[in-house]
Amino acid sequence: MLLREDNRVCKLLGTKYPLIQGGMAWVANAELASAVSNGGGLGVIAAANTPPDILEQEIIKAKSMIEPGRPFGLNIMLMSPTADAALEVAAKQRVPVVTTGAGSPGKVLERLKPLGTIVIPVVASVTQARRVEKQGADAVVAEGMEAGGHIGELTTMVLTPQISQAVKIPVICAGGVADGRGVVAAFALGAEGVQVGTRFICCEECTVHMNYKNAVIAAKDRSTAITGQTLGHPVRCLRNKLTAEFERLESERAPASEIEALGTGKLRAAVVDGDTDWGSLMAGQSAAMVSEILPAKTIIENMFAHAEKVLGRVGEVKA
Ligand code: TUI
Fold it and tell me: Does the domain formed by 8-207+287-318 have CATH 3.40.50.300?
């Protein structure tokens, strides 16, 4: 059995499955978060750069869509200029779980732990994992560079076991997890849960433009590229005219301001307008393993049912 009664992630979150949905900017809204939470995982709304009043409305909407007793979360992107405002919204709305990304979550832990909020930072290195444990994090997401969006340098395969060994708090594995095989692999590496992003772009309840979903479904093994590496914040997305232009500017050592400017507004163009040529189609390498649009609940149930079958093939995994 992969899923045990005593799974620490399920106990911490109060979910049926030890699964967190990635806090994908522009993608993770009330519709997606409520579908994942109602499906037995932890749905997460992305604060990203959302103005605080609109973010608060989104949280209120999610609360109205989520079945009583089911938890949900808010992801705060720490590089965002609206991160402090999002933190206050999380406190005011008593959001049960907060995940953080792209920075050091000290301030978030200080503000929210006294309120009883569960805080789960996303990290990309062992040093960061150790630090957030000391600062009082309840669990940690170890995110490998197979993931979509803003990424670190290490792969899921090497990051997860090292973080699992370095900390006592539960580790949730992210980056490349899209099906039951990924869940079993995550547990074999020492994780007690998974964070899944890309797979949920292609769920029925996700409101992104159909062109974005179709691009994920069409993706093959080498369909993603990393842009922005020369700027110090690498971002993984599906290859298109935009990533080719990034590559050209970066190889020509264009001024950082010019490269930065190229990215402005491009995630919105992909998500809202369905611009697959010039939009930023953020997605992880697991896009190649996504082949159909299903309800979020079915995705989650299939993932864990398949995990049990896979585990039957590899034998009982011990930490
Ligand atoms: O945050 C993410 N993924 C993201 S954020 C995002 S929004 C965006 N939009 C446009 C351009 C750039 C970003 C899209 N995808 N994942 C979690 C994550 N966190 N990955 C890596 C890190 C990280 C990096 C540094 C965590 C901590 C950290 O610490 C720095 C420090 O000071 O300790």
Answer: no
